[in-house]
Write a structure and sequence with these properties.
The chain has 493 residues and is α/β, with parallel strands linked by helices. The protein has two domains: 254 residues, P-loop containing nucleotide triphosphate hydrolases (Rossmann fold, 3-Layer(aba) Sandwich); 221 residues, L-amino peptidase D-ALA esterase/amidase, CATH 3.60.70. The chain contains 13 helices and 24 strands. The strands form six sheets. Strands 13, 14, 15, 16, 17, 18, 20 and 23 form an eight-stranded mixed beta sheet that branches. It has a six-stranded mixed beta sheet with strand order 6-7-8-3-9-10, with helices on both faces. The longest helix has 30 residues. The structure holds adenosine-5'-diphosphate and magnesium ion. Magnesium ion binds next to helix 1. The site of magnesium ion has 5 residues, from helix 1.
């Protein structure tokens, strides 16, 4: 549909855009991203013929751009410029009718039935038909942007060029505009070339994206490839962080604020442990980045209260999460700040182990009850009863910065250490009589300060993993000893 060959040019003798080449297929959504002043709008001006490049060629449907007469070009290409002109005295319908000009013959041509039909359809598709007879200046910015989109659509173009179309639109208008473009690309084979300010919108909606740095191509391809941390940081000259979108396969780019962090303190020393029969609460003055399987705050989060709550072994609530939040409220602990677990095990049997050396500092707190100990290798065949609460809860505090990979590896290392402690303490699955590897409702929380030394690995023989393995093993073994001791004294009594 569109082909750019080695385009160089600008407004004077100094080229703004240099050596840009790409093809856009029919029905493709192609985005152009880059910082302010990187030449995005200038590049778009070359494509709709508002500016002549000094060098290079542009083809639309295999024909050089320069061979198109203005009306013929307007039937192929519609433009939504960055600053839409304000034709305020017109009604919405009149503005959209302007989109039909390339199809009008003669100076005083009248509106044909066909034109009216297309104008109505365009307004319908963009959701502005109900304002058709209102003056443009009575509409909001978002509504006006939709009117200009309707006008572009009324041109019945094969290709739509947009310069920051979502600027000044609130989030729901941005999404619905881009959803509409995506729908047209799929159903009408409309080709879309859009300058987009928002990297995340570009990532979610474009098939391919061009990243410009000072008028040159920095990267070109699928958003997942272009939105790479290092190249984005070199282009935008700021620290960025890439994550994956929670529900669609698309990268998410976030900024990192430039605030000074106070790393002088040892935050493990600063942990405040409060122990009651109803709960143990470990609190910190800072938020720790957590990965957990807890009742409250599961998954990744940032928390500063870590609550291990004791409940009766027959605890059975329809909605444990909201019941737990009420419990936290009664303690005046903010549930948004909390990772919260439950256990029927006695909190008095909890064990705390700290492993600290010149390479780092790890603190583990664990509680264990093994009434529902399970041999995981037999669970599929042997276990059918509903789960009850009787749990090994493990809390791991790490002074340092962990990558997501390290969080996952710490989880693995800690799980192995727990299983080994169960084996060494001869804990059996009561149903199968074979060595248990855990219980049916175990929870784990890995919390790191995300300050100081960075750990890329948490595996069993890594610098961090060795400490995790030792601390988790010793804490679980110790709490199991206390649990067994308590059971023995019960049965003797
Ligand atoms: P972007 O759209 O990426 O923010 P532009 O393409 O608008 O960037 O601008 C790129 C460079 O070209 C900037 O340095 C800008 O000052 C310059 N420029 C833009 N428009 C004009 C113009 N009409 N005349 C001269 N220089 C311009
Ligand atoms: Mg621009």
């Amino acid at each position: 549909m569109l082909e750019l060959q080695d385009i160089t040019g600008g407004y004077g003798s100094v080229p703004i855009v240099q050596n840009i080449s790409f093809n856009v297929e029919a029905g493709e959504i192609f985005s152009i991203v880059g910082p302010n002043g990187s030449g995005k709008s200038t590049l778009l001006k070359f494509i709709f013929g508002a500016l002549e490049p000094d060098q290079g060629k542009i083809f639309i449907d295999h024909k050089p751009l320069s061979t198109y007469a203005p009306k013929a070009l307007a039937k192929k290409v519609a433009v939504l410029p960055q600053h839409a002109e304000t034709t305020f005295s017109f009604t919405v319908r009149q503005v959209v009718e302007l989109g039909r000009y390339p199809y009008q013959k003669g100076l005083f041509s009248t509106q044909l039935e066909e034109d009216t039909k297309i104008v109505d359809q365009s307004m319908e598709e963009t959701g502005v038909l109900s304002f058709a007879d209102q003056p443009l200046d009575t509409l909001s910015g978002g509504e006006r942007q939709r009117v200009f989109l309707a006008r572009a659509l009324a041109q019945e173009p094969d290709m739509l060029l947009l310069d920051e179309p979502t600027n000044h639109l609130d989030i729901s208008f941005q999404i619905s505009l881009l959803d509409t473009l995506k729908k047209w690309a799929r159903t009408k084979k409309l080709t879309v070339v859009a300058v987009l300010h928002d990297l995340n919108m570009a990532a979610m909606y474009s098939d391919r994206t061009l990243l410009l740095k000072e008028g040159r191509q920095e990267a070109l391809g699928k958003p997942a490839y272009v939105m790479e941390k290092n190249s984005l940081e070199s282009v935008y000259k700021t620290e960025l962080y890439r994550k994956e979108h929670p529900s669609v396969p698309s990268p998410l780019i976030t900024l990192v604020p430039h605030t000074e962090k106070d790393v002088a303190e040892n935050y493990i020393d600063g942990l405040l442990v409060t122990e009651e029969t109803s709960h143990t609460c470990i609190s910190s003055s800072i938020y720790w980045k957590t990965l957990s399987s807890a009742v409250i705050g599961a998954g990744f989060g940032w928390h500063r209260h870590f609550v291990n709550r004791h409940v009766d072994k027959n605890y059975n609530e329809d909605n444990p999460e909201s019941e737990y939040m009420m419990f936290l409220q009664s303690l005046q602990i903010d549930s948004q700040d909390t990772t919260g677990m439950m256990t029927a095990a006695s909190l008095a049997d909890g064990a705390k182990v700290r492993v600290q050396d010149e390479d780092g500092d790890v603190f583990v707190y664990a509680t264990a009850g093994t009434a529902n100990a399970v041999d995981v290798s037999k669970a599929y065949e042997k276990h059918s009863q509903p789960v009850t609460i009787g749990t090994i809860n493990i809390w791991i505090f790490i002074d340092g910065t962990l990558t997501e990979a390290a969080y996952t590896q710490v989880m693995m290392t800690a799980t192995e250490a727990k299983a080994k402690a169960l084996l060494d303490k001869d804990i059996l699955d009561p149903d199968t009589g074979t060595p248990a590897t855990g219980t049916s409702t175990d929870s784990m929380c890995v919390a790191a300060t995300q300050q100081g030394d960075t750990y890329h690995y948490g595996g069993t023989i890594s610098v961090l993993g060795k400490k995790i393995g030792k601390a988790v093993y010793e804490a679980v073994a110790e709490t199991l000893d206390r649990y067994k001791e308590r059971r023995r004294s019960y049965s003797q009594a």
